[in-house]
Amino acid sequence: MDMAVQKAFTEEASAIPAPSKKVKVVARDVNVFYSEKQALKDVSVDIPEHAVMAFIGPSGCGKSTFLRCINRMNDTIPTCRVTGTIEIDGADIYDPKLDVVQLRARVGMVFQKPNPFPKSVYENVAYGPRIHGLARSKAELDDIVASSLKRAGLFDEVKDRLLDSGTGLSGGQQQRLCIARAIAVEPEIILMDEPCSALDPIATAKIEELMEELAETYTIVIVTHSMQQAARVSQRTAFFHLGELVEEGPTEAIFNAPKDKRTQDYITGRFG
Amino acid sequence: MDLTSGAAQARVRRRYRAEARFRAYGLVALAVAGVFLVALIADIVRKGLPAFTQHALVLDVAVPADLVDQQVRTDPVAIRGADYFPVMRDALKAAIPNIESRSAEKTLTRLLSAGAANRLASMIVADPTLIGRTVKVPLLLSANADLYFKGTGVGTPITERSGRGIATPSGTSGEITILVSSNDFAENLVAIKRGLGERASLLTAEANRLQRFGSASLADRIKELHEEAAALRARVEQPKVEEALDSNVPSLLVAINGGLVKITKLGDMGITGEVLLPLGSRADAQPGDWKIVTYETAESNRKATDQEVAFLERFKTLGAVEASFNTLFFVGGDSREPELAGIRGALTGSALTLLVTLVLCLPIGVLAAIYLEEFAPRNRLTDLIEVNINNLAAVPSIVFGLLGLAMFLNFFGLPRSAPLVGGLVLGLLVLPTIIIAARAALKAVPPSIKEAALGVGASHQQAVLHHILPLAVPGIMTGAIIGMAHALGETAPLLMIGMVAFIVDVPKTLTEAATVLPVQIYLWSDLPEPAFQYKTAAAIMVLLMFLFAMNGIAIWLRKKFERRW
Predict the structure, then answer these.
(1) Hey, which of A82, B50, B335, B417 would disulfide with B513, CB 3.0 to 4.6 Å?
(2) 3-state secondary structure B377-409
């Protein structure tokens, strides 16, 4: 996409009524390269605070890559290079002076496949607060674990087996455990990378319900393959295609009146 | 595509045949390998098992009151240092009385091990009041006497038949004649003459064989052979003449009046012989009261002489021979006497060496693996290091021995033959194995675990130390144990640094001279005494036990902690 089109697109995007809420994350001209291959091209997007924003798009479109830029998870891939700026609350997260570990404590993440540590349920949730020194005593830590599990809607199901292995839970429970683990460190943003793709519809419904509740406290960004899910849970949606951010706007607008033909083709199921 | 056509069906049949053939090849290969393995282990076990028991003579030993000076009666050093030879000799002579010949007495005392009195000395150290009393104590037999009772080719099959006539001995010891009233020995005489005839034919055949070469240098030898054959034939043809028995034919003996006489000259109606076990009296023995005993293996073809066999069989009938588990093999150090030699020294040496190896290798290996796997930048230097580590695992072990010799002994001046140096050398050998195994184990931990840790804000180091390393520990342990098993069986590099010496004392420190189990096996396998061959096999069994146990633990660890993500 050449600069003129990009510019026109941005102007077009800003013509949409601005979200009423405060903007949490501001990304401008983000490019990501794996070795020589460009995975993201000039992505610019605003992510509103205390809301759910969904990234949709076909496989390999770069939506996960962009998500992983927000907590600099891409740093772990040696060949990955990121240009452009991403700011959280106005502070550039790619600033060399910024501590990436602290950033990740502020920006929690839930992955595609439930990945609890092969430790007890309690240890899974307590690990984050412990390494960040959030609890001064065992009792305080117990409180954090209990409240995190409660907020993840898991406490009643696991309260009798807090010391059993986290990997022994069902898939949906494991994923909620991962969410509890993420919120235990009191992040500001929670990134969810296709959190329901490995779950059955009932577990998916529970997670979606949970997301709505969590959005009151946290800023949530979710990558999903399911357009229904995006329509159900998100307030804003961004459509990615071949490394470009094609269209972004309020979810209803994207699904009911897409401006770009590619978006329309995708949401009507013509490709992807 | 027509699947019913002849060509298609032929193709299917051909495919099935090819699969069956492939299966058969695999099974044959497995069977061959299995047969060899079973044969190897069976052979080792067959040879090694006799070494795990030991025979002793349980005799009443009169401990003389003046064994040690009155003042030092309770001093262990004095008690152990006392002269037990006369004590044991007297005990033996009491068990088989009336032996007059010096050589027979010598043979008798040599049946006992050089360390036969050790047990007695220990008993006296524990209870000094035994001095002056008669004690029933097991006296360790010499290696050959021990092997005799294990039936390992040292002795001979023995047959007996009763005498038919009245036998009259001329004396009770020394060289005697026994006259017999019937032709008891006729068949032996015939057998011997037949044997002589066969030997004569063999000699003639040999002479004829040499004749064909026609060499002048062989002429003398051919003449000799012909003369020998002629002499043998002459003996065969002469009837009614006493035939002398030599050590090339089965030994014939007469058991009479509680004694045993070895026949040296055999006649129709009587014999001349040498008394091996003294007779009780010169009285006539009635038919059935005396026996003709045959030691079927010719004396020259066996280790135990007739005299030794006679003594040992006598002790057996006296019920003095006792077999017991060979604890000495496990608690004793090396010795020149096979019956006293044990593997304790070698085992301790192995343990100390492996301890050094483990303490050295495990931390360095694991840390190196963590660095290379998790932290090292991917560049040409890292690649070079990686390739070299993989190559080092394939370097012949003797090269590490030479390196150890040059570095640790010559440059750093560490002591020779010491477990410390052995451990360092084996450490070099095992380090690549451990690094490779540890890297594989770290790599096997799914990246999702690391992502999860990073996702909650753990630093890279925290993610590795808190999550990845604990999950990799079973794999690392498996690799480490297999590396240690490799080190335990390693011989060549240790030869280079002098751990091949004959060391009697069990090592106590890392810098004392020591040897290790495989080197001990190597040393023993080189010794000529048959008893050491059995010890070699037994030591191999012990080594294999340790290796099986270590590999078993490794497999168990792997199975127990195997996870699926």
Answers:
(1) B417
(2) CCCHHHHHHHHHHHHHCCCCHHHHHHHHHHHHH
For residues A62 and A40, the answer to whether their CB atoms sit within 8 Å is yes
Give the confidence band of A20 by pLDDT, cuts at 50, 70, 90.
Answer: low
Query: Tokens representing B231?
Result: 């002499």
Note the pLDDT of residue B163.
86
Report the SS3 class of residue B115. Answer: coil
Most confident of A151-160, B90-99, B351-360: B351-360
CB B131 within 8 A of CB B102: no
Cβ-contact A263, A254 below 8 angstroms: yes
Rounded to whole angstroms, the Cα distance separating B387 from B384 reads: 5
What single-letter DSSP state applies at residue A165?
Answer: B
Task: Give the helix ranges, DSSP H, for B172-279.
Answer: 186-213, 219-237
Could you read off the pLDDT of B272-313 as tens digits, one per residue? Answer: 898 999 888 888 888 888 999 989 888 888 888 889 999 999
Residue of B383, B445, B456, B471 best to disrupt the A interface, most CBs of A under 10 A: B456
Sign of CA dihedral A111, A115, A120, A123: negative
User: Token pair for residue B115?
Assistant: 């360390």
Helix (H, G, I), strand (E, B) or coil at A42: strand
Please, are residues A84 and A28 in contact by the beta-carbon 8 Å criterion?
Answer: yes
DSSP B252: E
Q: Is B168 helix (H, G, I), strand (E, B) or coil?
A: strand
Q: How far is the C-alpha of B556 from the C-alpha of B478, rounded, in Å?
A: 9
Question: Residue A40 and residue A5: Cα distance in Å, rounded?
Answer: 16
Contacting residues of A for B469, CB less than 8 Å apart:
none
Q: Is A268 exposed, middle or buried (0-12, 13-18, 19+ CB in 10 A)?
A: exposed
Measured CA to CA in angstroms, residue B496 lies from B361, B477, B486 at distances of 21, 29, 18
User: Is B264:B274 a contact under the CB 8 Å cutoff?
Assistant: yes
Query: CB-side exposure of B406: number of CA atoms within 13 Å?
Result: 6
ipTM of the shown complex: 0.85
Q: If we measure between CA atoms, which residue out of B363, B373, B433, B427 comes closest to residue B400?
A: B427
Sequence-distant (≥ 6) Cβ neighbours of residue A251 within 8 angstroms: A54, A230, A231, A234, A235, A236, A237
Burial of A205 (0-12, 13-18, 19+ CB in 10 A): middle
d(CA A228, CA B128) in angstroms, rounded, equals 97
Is B453's CB within 8 Å of A127's CB?
Answer: yes
Tell if the CB–CB gap between B451 and A115 is shorter than 8 Å.
yes
Q: What distance in Å separates residue A222's CA from the closest CA in chain B?
A: 15
Q: Which residues contact B209 (CB under 8 A, 6 or more apart)?
A: none
Query: Which of these, B104, B97, B117, B99, lies nearest to B57 by C-alpha position?
Result: B117
- Strands (DSSP E) contained in chain A are 23-34, 37-48, 52-56, 80-88, 91-92, 107-110, 189-193, 219-223, 236-241, 244-250
- Give the C-alpha separation, B456 to A183, whole Å: 9
- What residues form DSSP beta bridges with B255? B260, B291
Q: Do B455 and A117 touch (CB under 8 A)?
A: no
Q: Is B471 close to A118, i.e. CB distance below 8 A? A: yes
Q: If you write DSSP's letter for every residue of B418-457 in order, what string do you get?
A: -HHHHHHHHHHHHHHHHHHHHHHHHHHS-HHHHHHHHHTT
Instruction: Report residue B73's pLDDT band, with 50, 70 and 90 as the boundaries.
Output: confident
For residues B440 and B475, the answer to whether their CB atoms sit within 8 Å is yes
How many Cβ atoms are within 10 Å of A138's Cβ, its own excluded?
Answer: 9
Distance CA B308, CA B313 (A): 8
Q: Evaluate if residue B225 carries a pLDDT over 90.
A: no
Determine the Cα–Cα distance for residues B189 and B169; give it in Å rounded to an integer.
Answer: 20
The answer to whether the CB of B488 falls within 8 A of the CB of B547 is yes
Do B525 and B536 form a contact (C-beta atoms < 8 A)?
yes
